[in-house]
Design brief:
This protein has seven helices and three strands. By secondary structure, it is mainly α. A hairpin with a 4-residue loop joins strand 1 and strand 2. The protein is globular.
Length: 212
């Protein structure tokens, strides 16, 4: 093993532990399957990073290697974002989550400032989550001005806004709810998601990313 490859191996990502037993409306069976899927993204990210490092060799990619190198990097974007988005999703959930946010909290005020009221922000966020297709609904902070905006992220890597900070992350790939709800019941899954949100953590993400 080369020195470079050894360094990459020592920097491998490790799956994070999430104690989410007992969420309201999202079964432990679903979570068990979902967490295994997440672990697959972690494993794939490590494998692809090592393959890319080995291909780099002395730091140069020749013309014949470029197609393979390009494909590995495209796959890494999918796997890596899948890993990170799942970590954000699992982290912003908690058994017995507060469900209804306090409108005078950091996020409640920011939602009101950006959308006119928290309820209008939620309506917009839920509507993004109900868009046809598989992907993610994410509420972002624009750190340049403090405004919130909700975005649809298709696949894992397409649709992110450069420099924006993810505050609340909702997985609406069907694996996130299909054991508990039918495809036509996605809105019920989203309602369950909101009943388990750790709003205190969302406040922390906002406070860390807010303009100074």
């Amino acid at each position: 093993m080369s020195r470079s490859t050894s360094r990459v191996a020592s920097l491998q990502y490790q799956p994070k532990d999430f104690d989410l037993h007992g969420l309201e409306g999202i079964s432990d069976r679903t979570l068990s399957m979902h967490l295994k899927l997440y672990e697959g993204y972690v494993k794939a990210s490590n494998t692809l990073r090592q393959q890319i490092d080995e291909m780099l060799g002395d730091g140069r990619i020749d013309r014949e290697e470029m197609p393979a190198y390009s494909e590995l990097n495209r796959r890494l974007a999918f796997e890596y974002n899948g890993m990170r988005l799942h970590e954000l999703y699992f982290t912003n959930l908690s058994p017995g989550g507060t469900g209804r946010i306090q409108t005078d909290s950091s996020f409640g005020r920011a939602a009101g400032d950006s959308f006119g009221s928290f309820d209008r922000w939620r309506e917009d966020f839920v509507s993004v989550g109900m868009m046809r297709g598989i992907g993610w609904a994410i509420c972002y902070l624009d750190p340049a001005c403090g405004r919130l905006s909700n975005h649809w992220i298709s696949s894992h890597e397409y649709g992110h806004v450069a420099g924006f900070v993810p505050l609340l992350v909702l997985d609406v790939w069907e694996h996130a709810y299909l054991l508990d709800y039918s495809p036509s019941e996605r809105s019920e899954y989203i309602d369950a998601f909101f009943r388990n949100v750790r709003w205190a953590l969302v406040d922390e993400r906002l406070d860390l990313g807010a303009p100074k």
